[in-house]
Amino acid sequence: MTEPLLSQQAPCRRSGATAPQLAGWLLFAAALSSIAGALGGPVAPQIPGALAWSAGLLLFSRLGGIQRIQVMLMLGLGGSGLLLAAYQGELTTYGAQALANSQVLIAMLVGVGFLRLVALPATAGNHSLPRGRASLCKTLLGTHLFGAAINFSALTIIGDRLHSERPLTPLQALVLSRGFGLAALWSPFFVAMGVALTLAPGAGLLPLSLSGLAVAVPALLLAGYGLTSRRDSADFAGYPVQLDALRIPLSLVLLVIAGHQLLPWLGILSLITICSLTLPLLLLLHRSHGDGVRRYRQHIEQALPGMHGELLLFLAAGVLMAGISALVHFSGIRLSLQHFGATEAAGLVGFSALLAIVGIHPVISVSSLAGMLMPVVTDPNLLGLAILMSWSLGVIVSPCSGTHLAMQGRFGINCLRFFGWNWRFALGLYGLDCLVLFGYEALFS
């Protein structure tokens, strides 16, 4: 997920960049160097990793309480494994892994943030919001599709428009929460997809996206039915979705899928990063050369530092993955599982959801278990699908998810209430997850 919106503060007039601005350029450089390495250039993966860590250190003081606890927990667990590696004389090997593990994910995270510059045009604030159950369904679908393309930026742009007329209502908050969270099931622009493809080597974008859509479509129908059945839905004030505005988000998804088929040797995450960085720049230059360059630079200096939470979470995840790999290798710890099928995948999704409820981010649970599961995984797509489901279900059911914490800070909606509002829907979503997992196993495994 990416941070809500560009800062509205005026550019700094002092000579020299501030620490956040420097961090923004370091992240941009990390993304470019990651792409260069993916294209075959002489760039070791540790270089973009080091650039990202430099930015992370500059932005660490910005972390909030819950995020800081999550990051420190991951660094502590991963660091214990690295200490064991150091004791065994293998610190260089596992330290290099820790530095490089998340660099492709972070490059993708940087890239997709640029999509908000062109993918979702602002609506005029002087028009009244459309009302009624049809508007609720359009807002649910619009949040889902825009979120699939430009991630968290869509949630905040739509939320800000709804909030501008009157304080966000619980029903509006639920529409945003469910519409956005379900996009993690299939969107190539969600970091969830990047995590799935990274932790399940051999998994494919197309099988994961299609399988995720098999859950997302009925889940959207279930969400729409449940929300429109509420008495207050008749007066729902929704976002004025324009179908014409869907062209760029849908084109982006199709462009990535087509590019993956034409250039199968290029990693899918790097392909997403390339599209995300270049297409907004080309469109901005086409629309207005001078202003386009200014907006692109403003995004680097003001918006990229705003992704400090996600950045440090994935940097810490890289340390955690390397540390757990070292612990497994040197301690001889093994899971007793002999097979990874639909039953085990459903257990992973349910276990991750329970941990998410108490504040443990899905990336922590899946990163901790995926490395130990891989030796018994015969179908990486099944593991990747379980990771997507874990992420989506965790975002929706957890009161401590980044989505709900951001909505609390931005719109004054108590994040603890989301569990009470969403747990019944989450049970239905988990049921759909299990049906698709067992259906996938029956058809393809």
TrEMBL record:
Keyword Zinc recorded: no
Keyword Membrane: yes
Bilayer-spanning residue ranges: 22-41, 71-88, 100-119, 140-159, 179-199, 206-227, 265-285, 311-333, 345-370, 382-400, 421-440
Domain of life: Bacteria
Keywords tagged on the record: Membrane, Transmembrane, Transmembrane helix
Coiled coil: none
Record-given protein name: Uncharacterized protein
